[in-house]
Amino acid sequence: MPDGTAPLLQRQDCEGGVTRLTLNRPDSRNSLSFAMLGALRHGLEEIAQDPRICVLVLAAAGPVFCAGHDLREITAHRNDEDAGRAFFDAAMHRCAEVMQAITALPQPVIAEVQGVATAAGCQLVATCDLAVASEAARFCTPGVDIGLFCSTPAVALSRAVAAKPAMEMLLTGAMVSAAEAQRIGLVNRVVPAAELSEATMALARHIADRSAHAVQLGKAAFYRQRGLPLAEAYAHCAAVMTDNLMATDAEEGIGAFLGKRKPVWGR
Fold first, then answer.
1. End-to-end distance of the chain based on CA atoms, in angstroms?
2. Of 230, 212, 260, 228, which is closest to residue 18 (Cα–Cα)?
3. What are the two backbone dihedrals, phi and then psi, of residue 37, each rounded to the nearest 5 degrees?
């Protein structure tokens, strides 16, 4: 358990172009306090500007992945002159900025979920590009249980899973198992707890071994085309494919495939 001087967010740069960011507030269930959201935003900004990083793994210390917003912090601000409105507004906007920064990050982001992810913590998992979960992981959006519908988590959840399972989670607040989360598309893979980090890192390294240029082009195009009508989506992605074909990595990759050799990507 970290002491008062431990960083809220721990960064570990691994071999092969993979970096890990670990939420480091296990004593408060890795809740997304205003300070934690600021640390995440700063960490993402640094990673976005680092060409050595091909894939980001987002993990958490302790038995809980993330319990969502810090309800003690929220309650304390009810004593403000405006009963907390300014702080609540700032916190929700900062959280939205962090979630959008994950989507906008050039590198793919994989959530490594070892335990419970609730409310904005579930939102964080849904926002990541991929998610690997322990068999012990659980997910819920329980705002309705405390008179607070999880409206901002709904933005990410409704884009990760189909409408009806998303609405069931939002309307009931019921806990969803890792297996059910995989079935509805909230996570990609479920593995035994002892194999979680190994499985996540294997997936991260597999992606990092591909052309970083192509992966980053592809991630951006994927999210851009989702909001477009069909014809516009094809037009946009056709232009991206043309740009991709003009890149050195595509020339190298096609040449390596035809020559039956391993490609050497530019970094």
1. 37
2. 212
3. -60, -40
Q: Are residues 204 and 231 in the same domain?
A: no
Do 171 and 134 belong together in one domain? yes
Strands (E), the chain: 9-13, 18-23, 55-60, 64-66, 109-113, 116-118, 130-134, 138-140, 176-177, 189-191
Give the C-alpha separation, 24 to 127, whole Å. 19
Q: Clarify whether residues 185 and 252 are in a common domain.
A: no
In this prediction the pTM is 0.96
3-state secondary structure of 114: coil
For residue 178 the two structure tokens come to 């890792």
Whichever domain contains 217, its CATH number is 1.10.12.10
Residues 171, 127 within the same domain:
yes
Q: Which of 60, 159, 163 is nearest to 118 (CA)?
A: 60
* Spatial distance between the Cα atoms of 63 and 16, rounded to a whole number of angstroms: 28
Query: Alpha helix (H) ranges present in 105-189?
Result: 120-127, 151-160, 163-172, 178-184
Q: Containing domain of residue 134, as a range?
A: 9-208
Along the 267 residues of the chain, how does pLDDT read in single tens digits? 444 568 999 999 999 999 999 999 999 999 999 999 999 999 999 999 999 999 999 999 999 999 999 999 999 999 999 999 999 999 999 999 999 999 999 999 999 999 999 999 999 999 999 999 999 999 999 999 999 999 999 999 999 999 999 999 999 999 999 999 999 999 999 999 999 999 999 999 999 999 999 999 999 999 999 999 999 999 999 999 999 999 999 999 999 999 999 999 986
Q: What is the DSSP string of 130-148?
A: EEEEETT-EEE-GGGGGT-
Report the CATH number at residue 37: 3.90.226.10
Q: CA nearest 167: which of 147, 150, 179, 188?
A: 150
